[in-house]
Amino acid sequence: MMPPWCFVCHKTLRDVEGDRPIDHFTYVYFADYHSEPGVEGSGVGAEWFCAEHAALGEAREHMPYRTALDEIRAATK
Ligand SMILES: [Zn+2]
């Protein structure tokens, strides 16, 4: 798994205040998510979102990765 890095605003753990910055991020798995069995961090089709943008990802979990991200890009331009 990649370290948290918001797909929309590019916020990382270092940009977040508080004791548990990881709580500020959500890893969203899209409909066509897959990974190599047993290979850590090999997943394709998932993306990090910060608390501010998590809803954009979560609302599109049922969509294929590319479609979802194209929509989010269009919605946040
Ligand atoms: Zn964000």
UniProtKB/TrEMBL annotation:
Protein name as annotated: Uncharacterized protein
Species name: Yinghuangia soli
Lineage: superkingdom: Bacteria
